[in-house]
Amino acid sequence: MKSIRLKFILTACLLSVASLLSAQSELAEFPGGKGEYIKFLQANISYPQKAMDNNESGLVYVSFDVEEDGSVTDVKVERSVSPSLDAEALRVMKMMPKWTPATEDGTPVKSRVTRIITFKMWFPKK
Q1: CB 119 within 8 A of CB 90
Q2: Quick one: which of 35, 39, 85 has its CA closest to 59?
């Protein structure tokens, strides 16, 4: 009896996993992929003078919604470093082009995305 119950539970679990995997889902993506996203950040982020003067650096966690049409909305700092670095991260995230939206079974859906922006000052070696 124990063996039959265990087989039933295992079969039920496998069927649940199979039904989850059968749904075709894609995550939202920056146009052109990760490489283009990095190029976008490099071209548009400016290290704030105030942050440089105060020797501020760190990781700003930013989240935003990617709407069904790919537009970026509701941009928020989730993890702060400093007011000047946070403001720069928000400024750049708000100017992003439309993303390729997430999909479920081929239908575009709204999704929440979190990205990390690294601010680190580099000093050339002498």
Answers
A1: no
A2: 85
Alpha-carbon distances of 25 from 10, 18, 34, 104, 122, rounded to whole Å: 25, 14, 18, 4, 40
pTM across the whole model? 0.76
Q: What pLDDT, in 10s, does the model give residues 16-58?
A: 333 444 457 899 999 999 999 999 999 999 999 999 999 999 9
- Strand 102-104 versus strand 111-119 pairing type: unpaired
Mean pLDDT value across the chain = 84
**Residue type for position 98:** K
Report which residue type is found at 50: K
* Sheet of strand 72-79, all strands in order from the earlier edge strand to the far edge: 72-79, 58-66, 111-119
CA dihedral (106, 108, 113, 115) positive or negative: positive
List the structure tokens of 93. Answer: 């995230």
Is 26 exposed, middle or buried (CB count within 10 Å of its CB: 0-12, 13-18, 19+)? middle
Which pLDDT score is estimated for 122? 75
